[in-house]
Design brief:
about 200 residues; alpha/beta; Rossmann fold
């Protein structure tokens, strides 16, 4: 092979290598999935762990996320359920948390960012304080996933149905709302929902 031929082969190989690396990088660095908490009940940490176990890529984690954290984000996963201790540690009360969450969710909707609400805390993350936040997230979410132990009174099912209207079919409901039998199933449910 001539010197010119060798040089051409090396250059071609380099071009192909960098093109392939760029394609891989684009896949890895596509829109992020922001995992955050509403209610500061430590739900987002559990959700992130379950997502990682299910090999979901591009996770961005911020417990007390704001509108600025939506940059480069394609989906927001909102773990919801209130903890007075968690709110206090974050320097928040219910009114401040409601205002923060509403701004975040409204901004996400205005930017066509998909919102997936998740209630994983069971009965411990229900009650008047939690349910005020739960209602806010269900109303804003494109889809909502709930561990069935937290929905024994059909609270989330009723919220989802009221959001869809009286004429909604079971199929309509299934397109925006689902229950899972175990906390462990939340990660795979999220994976199916986002299509990874």
């Amino acid at each position: 092979m001539t010197q010119f031929g060798r040089t051409l082969t090396i250059l071609t190989t380099m071009v192909l290598y960098f093109a392939f690396a760029g394609m891989c990088s684009a896949g890895e660095n596509g829109p992020s999935i922001l995992v955050t908490d509403v209610g500061q009940g430590n739900n987002a940490k559990i959700i992130r762990m379950l997502m990682k176990k299910n090999k979901i890529a591009n996770i961005k984690f911020k417990e007390v996320a704001t509108e600025a954290d939506l940059e480069g984000v394609g989906t927001v996963i909102v773990g919801v359920g209130a903890s007075t201790k968690g709110l206090g540690a974050a320097g928040l009360d219910l009114d401040k948390e409601m205002a923060r969450a509403k701004k975040l969710l409204d901004k996400a909707k205005s930017q066509s960012i998909k919102i997936i609400g998740v209630h994983i805390g069971g009965p411990a993350r229900r009650g008047e304080l939690s349910d005020t936040l739960n209602e806010l997230v269900v109303k804003s979410a494109d889809q909502f996933i709930v561990w069935e132990d937290g929905n024994k009174d059909a609270f989330f099912t009723k919220l989802a149905k009221s959001k869809l209207g009286d004429q909604a079919s079971d199929e309509d409901l299934a397109s925006v709302f689902r229950t899972v039998k175990s906390k462990r199933d939340v990660g795979s449910a999220i994976k199916e929902t986002i299509g990874q």
